[in-house]
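Pasting two entries for a bug report.
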Amino acid sequence: MLRALIRVAVVASMAGSALAQGAHDLDRGALDRAIKDSWRQAQPEWLQRLKQDDTQALCSLYRNNPPADIAAAIQAREKAAIKYPAAGVALMGDWKKGERLAQSGYGMRFTDYPPRAENGGNCFACHQLDPKELSYGTLGPSLAAYGKTRNFADADVKAVYERIYNPQAAVACANMPRLGASGFLSLEQIRDLTAYVMSPESPVNK
């Protein structure tokens, strides 16, 4: 996502220069060099974020619409890499902590370095969760009453945990970030977010 935003900004800048010079096409190599040059002063930790893994590279190649066989391979690879809590530890944690995480967009911005707080899930940026919440995004589906409409089934609890950990295990090239697979959120945080979505006591399901 960050790379895509930077690419848009650089394209806009280069497009303006190209128009000023009367050019009609942008050279892809020049675009990539401009992006790379724009990061010369970045921290080494940030430079790592420019390196795509196999899944990211395939999703970029196919513009997030891979052929069925490629999509199946992505899902299988990402599914196999999901990490779960230790044996005997429930997939649902503390929904109250999950609520705070869902409302927090902290983490991985230039202004958040060095880190001063835990990363948040920023879930309300894309989903409706608590029906009483007035501000939420619509990029993702509404999750209001999600657990309630599924009778709080164990299979659905696991599915929610896995979707938060790595949505591409369910939908190849999904828009949702791989919060667990990327290490952005801990397993404990993912358990808490799962509880926020699936617990009968959570305001999401009231």
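Entry 2 (this is the one that rendered wrong in the viewer):
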Amino acid sequence: MIIRAILLLLVCTNLGVAAWWLWHRDAIAVPLPGSEAGVASIQLLGEVGAPPVPMVPVTVASPTAQISAPACISLGPFGTPAALRQAMTTLTPHAGSIQYREVIATELRGYRVFMPPAADGSGALEVARALTARGVRDYYVVTAGEQANTVSLGIFRDMENAEKRREQLAGLGFNAVLEPRTEQVRQWWIDLSVAADFRWQSVLGEIALTVQDVACR
């Protein structure tokens, strides 16, 4: 019974498909109008031969363009990279061009008073005993390095105090030497072009710097 029903269903399905192929019609495509009545159609500029729209250049003003008569200066020295970075950041908005450079400089670190070097260590000890005999207690015998066999009598920040120490020893009969203490250090300078009436103190403050006029590149 079930098999008979399935066969009947298949026969009906095949008859339906055959009938659809015999009597169906393809749909006719109706083209849409290019535009509504009374409304102009859209056309590309290239289709109607219209000239292209010109590109307008945009000029970005630079700090250099804002300085009509620049003056070129070198400002420094800056003793640390941190001080250099802060000054560069502050000066850049006011400069047409700006760059920094590093130099090795000899920097004064104070003054040294000492007895001249003896021929050897024994001679330096004799000088020390002579100082002690005259009541001088504040000294140091240098036994190594460039100042070996000298007797150091003090290191001073100010020239005036160093002179007083040398004169004190001269009064006791000792021919002490006074010389500056120097050290090789790194320093940085900033080279920039600015307006002729620019005052760097107005942006950096009243700090100890040297300004040198340089030729503009």
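Dev reply: Rendering is fixed now. As a check, the viewer should reflect this: Helices lie at 2-23, 45-48, 81-91, 121-133, 159-171, 201-204.
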